[in-house]
Specification:
Order of helices and strands: HHHHHHHHHHHHHHHHHHH
Largest sheet: none
Radius of gyration: 21 Å
Strand content: under 5%
Distance between the termini: 30 Å
Number of helices: 19
Shape: globular
Number of strands: 0
Length: 418
């Protein structure tokens, strides 16, 4: 029965990951067609900024709340947990929207975006509210992710239909539609939780909220550090390079992230399993962990080489046949190989969290995130554009190597003390 639940949960996670990965990729040709290369470049920038503030609102609850929920014994405790997490995220959302408004007004006032800062802030607020009420960690903890699978799929189909409505499409229209779909999912999920479970939203205890916020600080800083050496590069590229390179980088990022995200459901599904093995049998945990790491590494290399082989058809499809320079194609080709490093760093992060090495993960990601934030803008300002890849590649390679070394060291120590 346990393996049946595990299999269903893994299938749902894969389905949801496929939807979240494929839809943004598949609608690229449509967005390029209706917005043009320049409009699409602005879209990439705004969505990247939205993602940064979504990371702030997500905090560390995808891991800490899931971990805490695994020890919850009744609906009352779960009601308190879900209400507390929702309350903290709502407060973080209010802070995020305010900061976003000032970022747009101060740093991007000269970029002449089609949409005003206050309108973009309103659109972000809608998106964040929907994201908060989705409560993705709750369904992961209860191994009932099929609900998110269905609602996410329906929302993405409706978004595509929204883009075909008979009216002029501009940047604000596209961003608003995307945020509305987030809210649609959130509303459906809240109704489902209230209707089909014993969990209810209650007034959370302020003291408990503060404690949970403090307990999640290390992992939050880690997730922020990861953002600062990965996603924030989209913001830098969009701010410094021409529309052609922004569009090419956007496709490359979605492709290599899409490829690496194929491995994410495996990590999520095996997370509670590896937690149990770690507590019960360290040798079995070690064997399974090494096997998963090796298989994911080999598969990531094969996927990266395959994507590079088909780079021209990929670019021609996604950019609606727009003419591209050879330099832009080379730029795209290089970034596809980041798939390997994304897969390795993601899995080793899960393993270190199982070891309760949250602070070590925080140290690694914060240090390299800081290095990335300093290095990439300097490279974009003073060196040829291709050096951006090498800067990002070396930083991510170092993260992967350091985290792998920490995992091996702790595994050896745990086996000696067993």
């Amino acid at each position: 029965m346990k393996y049946k639940v595990f299999s269903l949960n893994l299938s749902s996670l894969y389905g949801m990951q496929a939807i979240l990965t494929l839809f943004p990729i598949l609608i690229i040709p449509l967005l390029v067609k209706v917005l043009g290369i320049d409009g699409y470049a602005d879209y990439v920038l705004i969505v990247a900024l939205f993602g940064m503030f979504e990371t702030v609102v997500a905090y560390s609850f995808r891991t800490t709340a899931t971990r805490e929920a695994s020890h919850v014994k009744n609906d009352g405790e779960m009601s308190e947990l879900i209400s507390s997490v929702t309350g903290i995220r709502l407060l973080l959302a209010a802070f995020a929207v305010l900061v976003f408004f000032f970022v747009i007004e101060i740093f991007y006032s000269s970029k002449e975006l089609e949409v005003s800062g206050i309108t973009l802030s309103f659109i972000l607020a809608i998106r964040l509210v929907g994201f908060i009420f989705t409560n993705e960690w709750y369904f992961q903890a209860t191994q009932n992710t099929k609900v998110l699978l269905v609602t996410t799929f329906v929302s993405r189909v409706l978004f595509v239909a929204y883009l075909f409505l008979p009216r002029d499409i501009d940047l604000g229209y596209v961003l608003l539609g995307n945020s509305i779909m987030y809210t649609f999912v959130g509303c459906i999920v809240v109704c489902y939780i209230q209707r089909f479970s014993g969990v209810k939203f209650v007034i959370p205890d302020v003291g408990t909220m503060i404690t949970r916020f403090k307990n999640g600080k290390d992992l939050f800083l880690s997730s922020l550090g990861v953002y600062f050496y990965t996603n924030i590069n989209t913001v830098f590229v969009s701010s410094f390079l021409s529309s052609e390179f922004v569009a090419v980088y956007s496709v490359a990022e979605k492709v290599y992230r899409g490829a690496s995200s194929l491995f994410a459901p495996i990590n999520r599904a095996f997370y509670p399993v590896l937690l149990r093995f770690y507590k019960e049998n360290i040798n079995k945990f070690s064997r399974v962990t090494v096997n998963i790491y090796t298989l994911q590494l080999v598969a990531a290399v094969v996927v990266s080489v395959g994507l590079d082989y088909f780079k021209m058809p990929i670019l021609q499809y996604f950019l609606d046949g727009q003419p591209l320079t050879q330099e832009a194609v080379l730029f795209f080709s290089h970034f596809l190989y980041l798939t390997i490093l994304f897969v390795v760093s993601a899995f080793t992060t899960y393993v270190l969290i199982i070891f309760n090495m949250d602070k070590k993960v925080k140290q690694i990601t914060v240090v390299f995130g800081f290095v990335n934030v300093i290095t990439v803008p300097l490279v974009l300002n003073f060196l040829p554009f291709i050096y951006v890849f090498w800067a990002v590649f070396i930083i991510m390679l170092l993260v992967s190597l350091v985290q792998t070394k920490e995992c091996i060291s702790y595994l050896r120590k745990a086996k000696r003390s067993a």
